[in-house]
Amino acid sequence: MKLPQLSVFLENRPGSLAEPLKLLAAADINLVSISLADTEQFGILRLVLKEWERAKAVLEQDGWVANVSDVVAVDVDDQPGGLVHMLSVLAEAGINIEYMYAFALRRNYKAVLLFRFEDPDAAIEVLKAANISIVQEADMY
Amino acid sequence: MLKELWNDAAGGFHPVSAPDFLPEKQLREVQLRRLKAVVTRAYERVPLFRHRLEERGLTPESIQSLADIARLPFTVKADLRDTYPFGLFASPMTDVVRLHASSGTTGKPIVVAYTREDVDVWAEVMTRTLAACGLHRGDIVQNAFGYGLFTGGLGAHYGAETLGATVIPISGGNTDRQIMVLRDFGVTAICATPSYFMHLAEKALEMGVDLKDMPLRVGVFGAEPWSDAMRARIEADTGIQAFDIYGLSEIIGPGVASECAQHDGLHVFEDHFYPEIIDPETGEPLPDGTEGELVLTTLSKKAMPMIRYRTRDITAILPERCGCGRTIRRIRRIGRRSDDMFIIRGVNVYPSQVEAALLNVEGTLPHYQIILTREHGLDQMSVEVEVTPEVFSDKVRALEEVRSRLAHAIEHILGIRVGLRLVGPHAIPRSEGKAKRVIDRRNDS
Ligand SMILES: [Zn+2]
Prior knowledge:
- The structure holds 2 protein chains of 2 kinds.
- Chain A is an alpha+beta fold.
- Chain A has helices at residues 18-26, 52-61, 82-92, 120-129, 137-140, and strands at residues 2-11, 33-38, 42-48, 66-75, 97-104, 111-117.
- Chain A has 5 helices and 6 strands.
- Chain A has a 6-stranded antiparallel sheet.
- Chain A is globular, with a radius of gyration of 16 Å.
- Chain A starts with a strand and ends with a helix.
- Chain B folds into 2 domains: 3-24 and 99-337, Rossmann fold, CATH 3.40.50; 342-440, ANL, C-terminal domain (GMP Synthetase, Chain A, domain 3, 2-Layer Sandwich).
- Chain B starts with a helix and ends in a 5-residue tail after the last strand.
- At the A-B interface, strand 1, strand 3 and strand 4 of A face helix 11 and strand 21 of B.
- Zinc ion (ZN) binds at residues 260, 262, 267, 322, 324, 326 of chain B.
């Protein structure tokens, strides 16, 4: 299953990460995961959250630039052979990974990997065929 | 039949626009008669001008045709500063009913004067301007040009009143109040600098006021160069029709030239302001259709005639007849001023070149600012560009690619290396008046 991920443009300056997070906290919006990709010049804040539509509206209302992309969550602990096996399955099928990051699900402390694929639908097909279990939306939030 | 063509406005033809449609032969006769009179007046009353004619062995009788204007010396902005405050006046102070002045960001301000007749001509050309923009009696005009020493506010005010429209003399600034008035008073037309209107439209949206739902129909924009991309953005975001108008205090203020509903160049009110295009390097006159510096001569001004005033604005005269039927000639929209140009590492750069590059890559023009610095004795140019939802991506590589494509596009046009920084939305200060595109910090340290 594809999950919506909210990305926010940040300038690389002190305090720029805190501002959107404060804004979401003030709107009583809970986050499932936070990841930050940053370069010398700018950063991209990536959020997975249940109320992503409301969060996007809240951020845009305040002047932040945000977009939504699909990511795929995989429960690594469940995989026979673990991460290495999974990556080789994807590589053999020629699936491109744009980026990935890990986080722990709060409800059962399981480690989950989030993948941003160039083609998420093709990736899901390949993972399913290899019996690699994909975390469903309902288990995430 | 002709009246059909004149019918710019829903309210019908305003008789004040009649000179816009003068047959060409008659127009040239009027211009020559007025040119002779204004040269005589300046020769008799302005010592600087008389001295310059004498130096060249010329007298007012040297003007026998419109082409003879090219024999006359130019007037430049420095002449106004050097004769500060009243040295170029051709009327005694008893006949002067109004003074305006430019804000003196560089040295002394320049002072301009009007007799009663001059104020009437000004009201007339501004009425013709607003009529060409489709305004008429019954329109509610929010005049957000600054009132005061700046000519914009009062110029538009007199024009709108003469037209019979309802004027709200709100002046510039206090954007929250502007939005309230615009909404509550049922404003149908607004006069402003384009950058201020964009600021106002953004603020309105943030306040939950969608200008598309308002009766606002027309925007009359001037006092700074603005691109076609900016017009497209304004029109798409607010649902209004945006008109470009042109003027400068030295000549009269706003009311020198205006777009019509064709939006294909600006008609110069050339029965009062005679346009020429010259080569800015050599001063030689250039034929219609060729790009160069606009030079204007005030044909009917009494208090302060300007003979061949060099505007520093780069444009071309469009000789073809306009689809609206007006016979007065048009100038192309002014994209750049020879004044805006800055020199970096020996290269002449216009902000409009940077704009063209940004526009090419993004499709619309983002907010940007050019910053010039000096590091270890070497000039550096960097451009800050606000990230828009259209170019933003969750992938670092994609954003880096946008950054380098923007940088390359600029470097390709200018031929020099530039730094390019993506900044957050609203990171670049929005001015309430004119847009500040270039920040020069080279002499700060
Ligand atoms: Zn026209």
